[in-house]
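Methods — Computational structure assignment.
A single polypeptide chain was analysed. Its primary sequence is given first, followed by the predicted tertiary structure written as structure tokens.
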Amino acid sequence: MITALSIRNLAVVEDIEVTFAMGMTSLTGETGAGKSMLVDALSLVLGDRADSKMVRQGSERAEIAASFATENNPPLQSWLLEQELDDDGQCDLRRTISKDGRSRAYINGRAVPLAQLREISVRTIDIHGQHAHQSLIRSETQRELLDTVAGTQPLLAKLAIQYQQLKTTQHQLDTLTQQSQDQTARHDLLDYQVNELQALNLDQDYIKQLVKEHQQRNNASQLIEAAQSAQHQLFEQEQGAAYSIISQALNEISQHQDIEPQFENIIATLNSTVIQLDEASNELRHYLDNTDNDPQRLQQIETELATLHDQARKHHIEIEQLPDHFEQLQQALASLAHIEVHTEQLQQQLSQKMAACRELCQQITKKRLQTAQPLAKKITQSIQQLAMPTGQVEFVVSPMANEHFNETGADNIQLLVTTNPGQAAGELGKVASGGELARISLAIQVVTASSRSVPTLVFDEVDVGIGGGIAEIVGNHLRKLAENRQVICITHLPQVAAQAHQQLQVSKTNLKDSTYIEIIALNDPERIEEISRMLGGVTITQKTRLHAKEMLDNSH
């Protein structure tokens, strides 16, 4: 529950501090006194949008602070703990609005994003504005009303998650399907290219060896001729063969090495040369013995190379690049194949998400159907007490067309009303008059209040258009609500104000250059005077005071 509210420099408010008690509190005052300013302040401190024009003229900033009791509010306690904003059971909110438009929020003295004030709001206060009944004609409001009483929120939270995942999976599947359609021609081309290249030997070393062998066989005659010439000059010519000349020089030098020691190195060098020439001769002989000038083999190589060059030209590369290019084509083809596999996986996931959503929708529908009739009966009983003796309401829960569903379930929900005997039930916005709609809305708020988990209900002149005995019934309903929660009611009806456990009076003073609002808690004599004023008449008589006292006495 809210225990205190302070407002500084907000609009016409200079400095106000209000304390609230458990039970029912009524705020009363002359029309235009600024009673709804408290609701505006509450809305601001709980995260509503702010405007720099709200700052009192001549002030740098407006400030609103509110304190809430947490001992009987486990959801609030848990949230504060989760956000690491807990402070020995305290929940103190503060909101500042600068004249330059900046806004700051605080929870237990720590600066927080504005969104966290809104999260506090849903765990503390439910505000019903004086025009709240107008939203009742909207189908989403009617659905939310039924769901609040049916307790479907946990299921709806799960459905929202599953539905979002379903939409994400569907989007991914649609994207892949589009890609698959766009890539069909590319898949066929890649498949053809890979099969065509797969028939070739595209080993990197093999291609290098093939090019080298082609060069050798294409020049085989010249190579054989050069080897034969070298063999002849080194060994076979009768005069001047290198091997013979060097061997003879070695023989002559060796005969004198005993006399000239310096010949030893020369002899070693010549010996090494003779050995190397002998090895060269063996290699030349081996080359000539094992080299053939086979034209058929050359033609085979040229045919194979021509095929490789043709493929390389088709792909605008060199033949040495064919192996790497072939691997890239295979990877691209495999990637397209992966799209197909991924598509199948997403289709399976989509089916699973669809089944999960439909299962949750069925559970939600079941709860709605179980709640619709009993809730309609309670609302009917309540509106019949509010000067609509023949009024009736009913909730119609019907499946969406074509088995459709969304994050709110698979149902269309309508709140239909009958206001006169023999009249067919019709849509709320078309059948009920403005006054009837306001009374139906109030009845609904009273009936469904116990289904809401928030500990504080604020009613901002929701009793507009009601008077007399009906007003007393409204007051009784609000006081009954206050038996197990805090009710704050801004009202102009004495029958309602008299039912409150606590009454606050709002007054406005207009000075030459400024306007001031004051709020005071009334004691019993002061309440009699205020109720008397509300009962009407320019002059308050003793009879009026006695009537006011009687109303207060009867409320206890």
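Note: The CA atoms of residues 238 and 244 lie 9 Å apart.
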